[in-house]
Amino acid sequence: MKFISTHGKRGISLRFKARIRRKLRYWVPAAVVALGIGLLSLTGPGHALLTSANAKPLPIYCVDTGGEKKACLTFDAAWGNEDTQQLIDILGKYHVKATFFVVGEWVDKYPESVKALFDAGHEIMNHSADHAHFPRLSPDQMITDLKTCNEKIAKVTGVTPTLFRPPYGDYNDKVINTVNRMPMYPIQWSVDSLDWKNPGSDAIVKRVLSKTQPGSIILFHNAAPDTPGALPAIIEGLQKDGYSLIKVSELIYPDNYTVDHTGMQHKRT
């Protein structure tokens, strides 16, 4: 019978551990470098580059314009269309182009409004097919939903949307990753007019003018009763302050960018 001393077993164990430590000193840095290379490749349309300050995928809330006074007026359209022509007239008076995020079912109900918005020079973007809570959907269901809405918009305008705003502003990592893979750009907002609360036109004007900064994306709603009354004063105030009011697709960087932990998009240098 052979006997192996515990001291011999301990010696083998120590040598094994030392070998593992030597391998880890090589493989861990190599893995980190490989991960960094993989992240640097995510610079195509609809893909934010993850940074050390932001390991979580986020939509674009606003844009770093380097102080240049540019901002966007955006409108979510999911319900009625009673003030759509009024919004078109107001925006046209001030030569402002806006971005309308529309639901596919709204396109079905009001194709003439979609066409009128598009013909007036505004961009029509995706707000889902039926205003579902996207975090409750599977990635396949999200993709189907996005494609359905895109097809309905393209049928009326001839242009396939590249931007998506989640209904209710509701998203998680799964939603953002799926939208990026479409590829589309997920868009939120940095200034909420709160027009959906019907606070009165004066309150909307005060709130928007006090919160808008260079690179802001401002949220309004089609069919919010106080918005048409607030819009002229908002546009006049921002233009007087030197702001150019442009479409979201003109504000964001299409590629080679980062999105920080606040949701601000930066041009990668």
Chain-wise SSE layout:
Elements: H1 6-40, E1 62-63, E2 70-77, H2 84-93, E3 99-102, H3 104-109, H4 111-119, E4 123-126, H5 139-157, E5 163-164, H6 173-181, E6 185-186, E7 191-192, H7 201-211, E8 217-221, H8 227-240, E9 244-245, H9 248-251, E10 257-259, E11 264-267
Parallel strand pairs: 1-11, 2-3, 2-8, 2-9, 3-4, 5-6, 7-8
Antiparallel strand pairs: 10-11
Mean pLDDT: 86
What's the total helix number?
9
Q: Write the CATH homologous superfamily.
A: Glycoside hydrolase/deacetylase
What gyration radius follows from the Cα positions, in whole Å? 25 Å
Number of strands: 11
CATH topology: TIM Barrel
Number of domains: 1
Q: Tell me the span between the first and last alpha carbons.
A: 71 Å
Sum up the overall morphology in one term.
globular
- Which structural class best describes the helix and strand composition? alpha/beta
Write up what this structure looks like.
This protein is an alpha/beta fold. It has one domain: Glycoside hydrolase/deacetylase (TIM Barrel, Alpha-Beta Barrel), CATH 3.20.20. The protein is 43% helix and 14% strand. The protein is built from nine helices and eleven strands. Strands 2, 3, 4, 7, 8 and 9 form a six-stranded parallel beta sheet that branches. The chain has a three-stranded mixed beta sheet with strand order 1-11-10, with no helix packed on it. The protein has a two-stranded parallel sheet with strand order 5-6. Helix 2 runs parallel beside helix 8 and helix 7 runs parallel beside helix 8. The longest helix has 35 residues.
